[in-house]
Amino acid sequence: MTPSWTRLPDLASRAAGGTVAWANDELFAERENLITRAEPGYRPATFGHKGQVYDGWETRRRREPGDDSAIVRLGLPGVIRGVVVDTAFFKGNYPPAATVEATRAPGHPSPDELTGWEVVVPRSPLEGDRKHHFDVAVEKRFTHVRLTIHPDGGVARLRVYGSPVPDPDLLVPEAVDLAALENGASVTGCSNTFYSDPANLIAPGPAAVMGEGWETARRRDDGNDWVELALAAPGAVRLAELDTSHFKGNAPGWASVRVRDERTGGDWVDLLPRTRLQPDTRHRFRVTGPEATHARLDIYPDGGMARLRLVGALTPSGLETITQRFRVLTR
Start and end of every Allantoicase domain (predicted)? Predict the structure, then answer.
């Protein structure tokens, strides 16, 4: 059974800003493949100058003692809940075992400046051509992970699932995207996930293609589709951006945004009333609304949206919530 933590964001994904900062060897296949968002693929009898082409990271056969390693800088620093080491299509050349360590470092250190590595996945056996799921129970905020394979071989993908934890020193309390995944917002409910994950709506950066947004199945009834979010922290939204980029024949016709304050048990309040949308367009609206902890996007009747941004001001208690969580997880 697939663990529930695989529904959390992949903190290491290239789509979230992650990068493979270093590897001691990548002779057969490049290290960058480890964090590619797409599932690995394979074309048999596809040979390059170094042999069969693999969609993964593959090192040479060792003829001396030692192990191979790769360091990934997380695009979304946070608490790691689980790790997937995927050896898809590596059948006679997978590593027999792997270890995963993690560390945290302020700023933008080079790989050789990283210290304080902690084991989050102890040395564990691997099999070829399968996904290996490992629970992680370390309640700390990490910025980097190191995958070590024993002794060599190929890994298709490394997924690092968890909860993003922002650094409060990098937030401007008067102008924060309260719906941003990187600031700690999360999806709490959704009417339809047929084509893609609604968490894409609040991912970092613009969507490069339609598949990086949220798209629902075609409705054949009188209802409409929706997504509900827990905001990063309590705040008041002042600017809403509804981005239908790349959705041309399947953008929603209309959309609305409502907010509520769970602390007081309040009802949903209109932030942006039902408004007509255009295909393939970034729509930006000045809005005025009350303090809130949650938001709800309704699209009419169905379709796809690339991104949702809700920029506003943190309340004093909201800033304290983010600051306190950061302090606890970086002790």
Answer: 17-164, 184-313
Q: What is the DSSP string of 149-210?
A: EES--EE-EEEEEEEE---GGG--TTSEETT-GGGT-EEEEES--SSS-GGGGG-SS--SSG
Q: Where in the chain is the domain with CATH 2.60.120.260?
A: 4-163, 168-318
pLDDT, mean of each 10-residue run, the chain (331 residues)? 94 96 96 96 88 93 96 98 98 97 96 97 98 98 98 98 96 96 96 94 95 96 97 98 97 98 94 98 96 98 98 96 96 86
Q: Alpha carbon of 6 to those of 26, 82, 131: distances in Å?
A: 27, 7, 12
Superfamily (CATH) of domain 4-163: Galactose-binding domain-like (2.60.120.260)
| CATH 2.60.120.260 given to domain 168-318 | yes
User: What span, in angstroms and rounded, lies between the C-alpha atoms of 166 and 163?
Assistant: 10
